[in-house]
Write a structure and sequence with these properties.
Order of helices and strands: HHEHHEH
Helix content: 55-70%
Number of strands: 2
Mean pLDDT: 79
Radius of gyration: 32 Å
Strand order of the largest sheet: 1-2
Structural class: mainly alpha
Number of helices: 5
Strand content: under 5%
Largest sheet: 2 strands, antiparallel
Length: 250
């Protein structure tokens, strides 16, 4: 857009403004928003409008960036949960008489869940599904191997009974209430329950991602509106000065 205002000197701009103000109000005196009749309101200058637009866009862009980061985290979390689901399906396919009794298979699933939770704690600590994943981990642990001795650095215990403020590896020694006795095995019913919980977590993440995209669309609409509003006001300002300038000397 051509900036007509820049074609005039400061004195000319001041004279044009005073003529515009006089022609629009039909009266003399101090216009609204001014301390005297010598200067246009600072909030009506092209420079002030451009600062407004820039500030508005920066605020919107920071919100868009945060929303996009959340979307990326959600996509990664869904992929990783999908991998856990694949592992559970593989374990289900390898059961003998409906039971998995291999301690290494049981421990591997427990460890995979703990590693996933640790990564989410680091990259997306406000994830809405972090607590359900911790609860699932505790159920898997209680059904499987139970809490490990403190000397074991891979899997420690339960999230639910960890001391307050504990981060990282779960340190709790008390399993969830009503949990079956740990016997280093998973039954078909156990695995079905794990699958259902994981699917529910993924579904909740998908719903959150959809709401996130709606929010991003709304922010992009706000961005376009800010640009259009500023452009429209500047164009009107330029058109007014141009018309008065054309009439000077006639």
């Amino acid at each position: 857009m051509t900036n007509t205002v820049s074609q005039y000197s400061s004195a000319q701009q001041q004279a044009l403004y005073e003529m515009m103000n006089a022609s629009s109000t039909g009266v003399t005196g101090t216009p609204v928003g001014e301390t005297d009749g010598s200067s246009p309101p600072v909030y009506l200058t092209p420079q002030a409008l451009m600062v407004y637009c820039q500030t508005r866009l920066q605020g919107i862009d920071s919100q868009v960036q945060a929303a996009m980061t959340t979307q990326q985290n959600t996509n990664w979390e869904q992929t990783e949960i999908g991998n856990v689901l694949s592992d559970v399906a593989s374990i289900s396919g390898g059961t003998t008489n409906g039971v998995t009794t291999d301690p290494q298979v049981v421990q591997a699933l427990e460890l995979k869940l703990e590693n996933l939770i640790t990564q989410i704690q680091q990259t997306d600590p406000t994830c809405s599904q972090l607590q359900p994943l911790e609860q699932l981990h505790d159920s898997v642990m209680a059904t499987g191997t139970g809490a490990y001795p403190p000397a074991n650095t891979s899997i420690q215990g339960y999230y639910g009974s960890s001391p307050n403020g504990t981060t990282g590896a779960p340190m709790g020694r008390v399993p969830p209430a009503g949990s079956p006795t740990n016997d280093s095995s998973f039954s078909t019913a156990d695995l079905t329950g794990f699958t259902s919980t994981l699917n529910n977590i993924n579904s909740s993440l998908s719903s959150g991602a959809e709401m996130g995209m709606i929010n991003i669309q709304s922010l992009m609409s706000d961005r376009t509106t800010a640009i259009q509003l500023t452009t429209s006001i500047l164009q009107s300002f330029d058109d007014g000065l141009s018309k008065i300038a054309d009439n000077i000397g006639k």
